[in-house]
Write a structure and sequence with these properties.
This protein is α+β, with helices and mostly antiparallel strands. Helices cover 63% and strands 11% of the residues. It has 2 domains: 207 residues, no CATH class; 82 residues, no CATH class.
Length: 313
């Protein structure tokens, strides 16, 4: 690859070669730092949303526990004549979450207890959610899943955790139709929501948020940081070019002019040593070379003069 550009590079001056090199370094630096930064910001945004989601899931579990242990026992007798959705933990959790969504900080979050065999068909898992629940069932050590999924409304980032029948009181409504409250049977029928067993994974608690919300903060942070990085790289290129022209290219050009003058016979032309670096050492070496050359020319002139005198005698 380099050999392809080598003929062109040979015809360029040193300053342009360094500028091209610095631009290549700048481009590669921006690309690699951009990729690394985007990856880090994406992971950080997902972790931040996951942290909020897990807090919400913990809150919903507390609501479920409160409903199951304190609300439902108080209304058990009334359930025989009238079904009250407020005694259903899933219903309470959903209602509390919808109320929580009125807060701007949580307005983009959505909650669902995606169930394989729900009493209320509103909670039935779709094909994607069914895959999540089945994976929790088959991999009992798996406690959390997260990722992206596509819906008609756009892409969503989701966090899911398994939901287990951990309280035997749940089986009063979901074991068999004959022990379930009559008011519940009248409302939902006997086709769904039965056959549950203790410690069985029957659903997944899923909290999702539009991917747009995830990437919005990423884009803002990315543009800000990449702007700073690009500015630093640009400033570095300008500084290196300035330093190169002042301390390398200009002294070399002056030396080239002096060498040209000396080659034309101007022995008074002087190599100026303005620094103690390699360029200064080179100027000093040229000065010694000029002195040696002048001495050699004088010796040559003396010998030529003597020969002329000897030949005339």
């Amino acid at each position: 690859m380099l050999s392809y550009f080598e003929p062109t590079l040979k015809n360029l001056k040193l300053g342009k070669k360094f500028t091209i090199l610095l631009l290549i370094v700048f481009a590669l630096g921006v690309i690699f730092s951009g990729v690394a930064l985007a990856t880090a910001l994406n992971r950080n945004a997902q972790n931040e949303i996951t942290s909020k989601a897990l807090m919400l899931i913990g809150t919903m579990n507390s609501v479920r526990h409160y409903t199951n242990t304190q609300v439902k026992p108080e209304l058990t007798d009334k359930l025989q004549t009238e079904f009250l959705p407020q005694v259903v933990p899933a219903y309470s959790a959903r209602e509390v979450f919808e109320s929580l969504r009125t807060d701007k900080a949580f307005s983009d979050f959505f909650y669902k207890e995606a169930t394989l065999n729900p009493t209320n068909l509103r909670d039935r898992a779709d094909d994607f959610e069914t895959g999540i629940v089945n994976r929790f069932i088959s991999e009992t050590n798996l406690k959390e899943l997260r990722g992206f999924r596509s819906l008609p409304g756009g892409d969503f980032f989701y966090i899911a955790r398994p939901l287990t029948v951990s309280d035997s009181s749940c089986l009063e409504c979901h074991s068999t139709p004959d022990v379930a409250p009559k008011s519940m049977i009248e409302r939902y029928g006997t086709a769904n929501g039965f056959g549950w067993k203790l410690n069985q994974i029957i659903a997944a608690q899923i909290i999702s948020v539009p991917a747009n919300s995830v990437f919005k903060s990423i884009r803002q942070s990315f543009l800000l940081i990449m702007g700073i990085v690009a500015g630093i790289f640009a400033a570095a290129i300008l500084m290196v070019n300035f330093w190169l022209k002042r301390y390398v290219i200009r002294p070399l050009n002056r030396m080239a002019q002096v060498v040209e003058a000396v080659s034309m016979g101007d022995t008074d032309a002087d190599f100026e040593r303005a620094s103690n670096d390699e360029v200064g050492i080179l100027a000093e070496a040229f000065t010694r070379m000029k002195t040696s050359l002048a001495m050699a020319m004088k010796m040559l002139d003396k010998r030529s003069g003597r020969r002329s005198i000897d030949s005339s005698q």
